[in-house]
Amino acid sequence: MPDQTITSVSRESRVFKPSAEFKAQANLGSEVTYKRLYKESVNSPEKFWAKQANELLEWRKPFKKVLNWKVPHAKWFADGTLNVSENCLDRHLGTPLENKAAIIFEGEPGDIQTLTYKQLHREVCKFANGLQSLGMKKGDRAAIYMPMVPEAAIAMLACARIGVIHTVIFGGYSAESIKDRVNDCEAKLVITSDGGWRRGKIIELKATVDAALKKGVKCVEHVIVHQRTSNKVTMKKKRDIWWHDLMADSSSEHKAKAFAAENPLFVLYTSGSTGKPKGVLHTSAGYLLGTTITSKYVFDLKETDIYWCTADIGWITGHSYVVYGPLSNGATVLMYEGAPNHPEPDRFWDIIDRHGVTIFYTAPTAIRAFMRWGDDYVKKYSLKSLRLLGSVGEPINPEAWMWYHRMIGKKRCPIVDTWWQTETGAIMVTPLPGVTPAKPGSCAVPFFGVVPKILDETGQEVPKGEGGRLFLTQAWPSMLRTLWGDDDRFKKQYWSEIKGIYFAGDGARFDEDGYLWVVGRIDDVLNVSGHRIGTAEVESVLVAHPKVAEAAVVGRPDDLKGSALVCFVTLKSDKAASDDLKQALRVHVAKEIGAFARPDSIRFAPALPKTRSGKIMRRILKDIAAGVEVKGDITTLEDIKVVAALQASD
């Protein structure tokens, strides 16, 4: 049998126990409560989820059957009906929440807008009526390509209100990417803006949509254009409609339609290994339940919280933890349009202090950027309003966790390091604040109903401390239902590795305390001279060096070793690159992991290739490391000039 051991260096001895003060007010309360509820959720899942669905959601028609499960297809609460938009808005009307802020928006130029639940409901109703006036109905698809503005959430909630399936496309994607997604789901409508602000410049969104629709898109009947930046745009007669004109003629009264629990809510495209985007399909009740319950317990939401998730609305984190989960709980959500370092790298800390943000949820790539920019930008602000921090998007290396804990949380805020995916819909593994002792770099323990297992290629569980492949062995409400128009790919990609259980695609291990450590995508686990090495762990070792701010590690084909380790390293702003430092970093990695993990190449670079959402585009680094031409769409890069600098860095 091939060696499936994934070398792991994360033997974390630092443990941070919940404070008595936080524990006393936590929604979940105690580890005893967590263990009792978790045991019930995995041993009697239908009983557990029936209770949660009845307590946390508003139903038009109660369900009788909890789960129909014919692997790999799940139907949750299938005979019940509800409306997702109604659960996020209408049920808060007539309560003290109706005049509470639902969304606090800050634009990059500094404009601020607050929408109460009553006001947000009115805007969603008007837009839902506007969509219906254009002939949009249940089952139709609408593409949303907008900046991070309240109108994007309004568009999503209005679609949900009338049964239109939305597909949100990140506002940095190219015309080609828009074309592929719109054609794949045959969207009848595109909702966009004239532009959006990013580092003081206008990102021309409408022009990109126009270019996409000229590339052979025949399904689109209308384009609705929200005016954000007032840059000049071309409006095509009969097809294009200004948002404000549509709203001017729309009534603010709208009765939400009740839909079956399994009615499709949205399709969200995620990159696939074949290059063709995968349209992940999520349905209504199960998805909403997953995002509602995780928002309540993972973020410990209180009525007084100002909650800020920095994710763009175009990603699953923006769907689940900017819109649906928090609003279903009646939370106040802060939305920010622009870059974290405009006009200065202190923008986030300034926003937190001015708005009194209490919960802050961001990505490890952002945290490492904050570290690189320096502590002085943080020290200007008190950040005293913060009570809970979160991490999402990829494994967080321990040193970044410690900086986050020390500099942003002031050693008093719990950190929820969450593992989940577009496909899972909601958080799967996480520390629970006030309950779970935290280990820097570990996503800790499974959420209710989640049964993770680490298996080798034969399906056998690996011992604690050893790495393998991460699987989820029990159905959960917010799981993806299929891939849009490609059920065969759905079955093959997620359910064929070991029949009957979901393959997450990640390498991971459990430590001796049962804490889960995710080491990255299986694609990023390299075979180096017979050793299986997770690139995420090499990156963590590099970032732990006092001169390193950020690192990305990829493999380069090697005839002798199988794969050679190539490390792209960004130094802290006051540190200088040198051949001596390259050698020191090689020695550092060899000492921490083993001689077999000594990098073959270290390249210093002023920056790494990142999308506007902060995700490192590793395929670009793989092409550069292999010495081949960079392939594929790079228009989502924050700074395209980074690629040329990297190519010259060796």
Task: Walk me through this protein's architecture.
This protein is an alpha/beta fold. Helices cover about 30% and strands about 25% of the residues. It folds into 2 domains: about 5-250 and about 260-440 and about 460-505, 3-Layer(aba) Sandwich (Rossmann fold); about 530-645, GMP Synthetase, Chain A, domain 3. The protein has a 7-stranded mixed beta sheet with strand order 6-5-18-17-19-20-21, with helices on both faces. The protein has a 5-stranded parallel beta sheet with strand order 8-7-9-12-13, with helices on both faces. The chain has a 4-stranded antiparallel beta sheet with strand order 24-25-27-28. Strand 17, helix 11 (about 315-330) and strand 18 (about 330-335) form a beta-alpha-beta unit. The protein is globular.
Précis, in short:
This protein has 650 residues and is of the alpha/beta class.
Cα radius of gyration in angstroms:
24 Å
CATH architecture of the largest domain: 3-Layer(aba) Sandwich
* Unreliable spans: 1-10
Domain module tally: 2
User: Might you state the CATH topology name of the largest domain?
Assistant: Rossmann fold
Describe the sheet with the most strands: 7 strands, mixed
Oligomer: single chain
CATH class of the largest domain: Alpha Beta
Estimate percent helicity. 25-40%
Strand order of the largest sheet: 6-5-18-17-19-20-21
Structural class of the secondary elements? alpha/beta
Mean pLDDT: 92
Number of helices: 20
Give the overall silhouette: globular
CATH superfamily of the largest domain: ANL, N-terminal domain
- In percent terms, what proportion of residues is strand? 15-25%
The total beta strand count reads 33
Q: What is the rounded distance between the termini?
A: 37 Å
